[in-house]
Amino acid sequence: MEAWPSVLVATPVHSGLGEVLSYRHPTTLPAGTLVRVPLGARDVLGIVRDCPASPPEGLDPASARAVSVVLEGLPPLSAGWLQLLRFAAQYYQRSMGEVALGSLPPPLRDLDATQLARRLKRLAKPSPVGGAPGPTDAPRVLHDEQAAALAGIQAADRPVLLFGATGSGKTEVYLQAAEAELTARPDAQVLVLVPEINLTPQLEARLRARFEARFGSGAVVCLHSGLTPAQRLAGWLTAHTGRARIVLGTRMAVFASLPGLRLIVVDEEHDPSYKSQDGARHSARDLAVYRAKVEGCRVVLGSATPSLESWHAAEQGRYRRLDMPGRIGGGRLPRLRLVDMNHQPKGALLAPPLLQAMTERVARGEQCLVLLNRRGYAPVLACHACGWKSGCPHCSAYRVFHKIDRSLRCHHCGTASRVPRACPDCGNLDIAPVGRGTEQLEEQLTELLTEVRRPDGSPVRVARMDADSTRLKGALEAQLDALHSGEVDVLVGTQMVAKGHDFRRITLVAALNADAALFASDHRAPERLFALLMQAGGRAGRDAQHSEGSELWVQTWHPAHSLFTHLRTHDFAGFASAELGEREAAGMPPFAHQALLRADARTQEAAQGFLNAAARAAADLPGTDDITLYPAVPLTIQRVANVERAQLLVEAVSRPVLQRFLAAWQPLLLACRSDPAARGLLRFAVDVDPLSL
Ligand code: ADP
Ligand code: ZN
Ligand code: ZN
Fold first, then answer.
1. pLDDT exceeds 70 at position 12
2. How far apart, in whole angstroms, are the C-alpha atoms of residue 321 and residue 164?
3. Of 387, 415, 436, the domain-final residue
4. Sheet strands (E) in 107-216
5. What residues pack around ion ligand 2 (CB closer than 5 A)?
6. Domain range holding 360?
7. What is the pLDDT of residues 450-476, one digit of tens each?
8. Which CATH number covers residue 37?
9. Cis (ω within 30 of 0) for the bond into 631?
10. How far apart are the CA of 172 and the centre of ligand 1, in A?
């Protein structure tokens, strides 16, 4: 019987095409079927949203085009998956076709039916069970806190917030929760989300070691943007066809097709990388919670420093909080040592007592970790004769001096050039770096520690880990190995080093320039600083053997700041309730709900002109009393790659109010593009629940 499938295709909200297009097909097709359909002169991949038996209103049956190909080898996407994508599109103000098609692995868009059949056949080859090569890992006997947490997860009727100290054994709890689901049902699947896969290579290894021998060598697959397109396709297909039992991935993996999904784990749930910074700008953590509700499966959010959103949800009873305060092996959390920079020699990068402490530790064969949130050698190069500074010609930012290759590099647009011999403005030969970055810190520490010897008499080894040192493929793994094997004594790096690693002999962690976050205008800055310091400190003393004297050093000009009071006692709960109190008083999230309208344009006037037009248009919408529109402002870094950027903050008393407003506003925004004041506008985007303002 002839049917009239409505098909999702990748049309952006802006295209005005509508997000579903109607076609005809000789038989009815189940929702979720993957098809290829003609669009203009091309054939594109589409997903059947539904399939009415009669042509939809307004469609002339005579002119309707036919579905070109049905990708028969693939089971349809599930109703739960379609619901997740429908919700994500609605919530983040995009079209469903754009979000749904955008979430599929890119090669799927180009494969014809024969090529696809070939791939599927290759994947269907049986994989050996039991004989999987590589190390195996048996489940540990759980400690009491872990056992209670596991039981709590299995009994929970709502999302679980697993609040466990660094080193409390959260991973073991995830693994055993996963194992229970996989054993209970032969088709069960588990999704494990991590912020950045490269920083946690141990987790992938552990999952494989734990599960491949039991569930086959294809049981664990990874999904993240570092894979080749072919790998991504293979991973996606194994998950979609149910062969993969465990999917480990980054935020993109929240959209993986998992017909047997029984458990979602969001590790380090506080991490800002879960929020996408382009496209639909979705929060994978929030979508994981939604997805679990739709699928009727469990979801566990784990962290030693939960986001205030999740903490608040637990306080309200929407999430169930389970605590694991103890560390495995009884290792103690490090003691806080605040260095009051008001009493240190002027211009010292490292305060003398800190340097002294580091020297003693490396001489004893222990490791130190030093955090400095600025890569490069110096953030700016300046001429003291005329005041020239190494500004970027394309951005309102300075180019950073990298001594290693004597380059000036803009960290915003990527522009790089060689360091000039003399000042470009006055010819003065004496141009000098101002301020310090990780490269310089590494150089200085190497010098300062050159006389120091390790217990075996060999010289101290200093290494650096940041986005520059790990750019090359395999570099990060090599550096982590060097650290784990004890070749490195002092590791200098950006916040990258504070995440997830399990370093055995680190007994001292130092943060050099934490102050900026204390007084930042961004209301999330203290939360992020606290998390960073707790996480960094958590790297120290993971071995009880080395934990006794472990220390977290923080250099600050404001030692009396209340954040340090809670840090001293490792009191996240105290910090969270103080911070939430301030947020509530100031009407900030999670007590208010925000969205940003962002505009990119050739001129700042055009960017703001568009935003102002949008604000005027909003005034005519009904029910805007509970909505606050703030004035349009330039972004902190106003110009990047010759594009001027501005934004407008929208605030609402509740999520539904904000959602209703945004939905009504969206069509007006399209019209505002042609406002005369917006001439020169390049693009705009709505960012719902923005992480930074
Ligand atoms: P977290 O993720 O909470 O920081 P991990 O899961 O990495 O902590 O656990 C810390 C260390 O303790 C790991 O080396 C892990 O193998 C070990 N561990 C965890 N649970 C147990 C257990 N029940 N018995 C013995 N060792 C354990
Ligand atoms: Zn000059
Ligand atoms: Zn630039």
1. no
2. 10
3. 436
4. 160-164, 189-193
5. 383, 385-386, 388, 423, 425-426, 428
6. 331-375+438-584
7. 999 999 999 999 999 888 888 777 787
8. 3.40.1440.60
9. no
10. 6
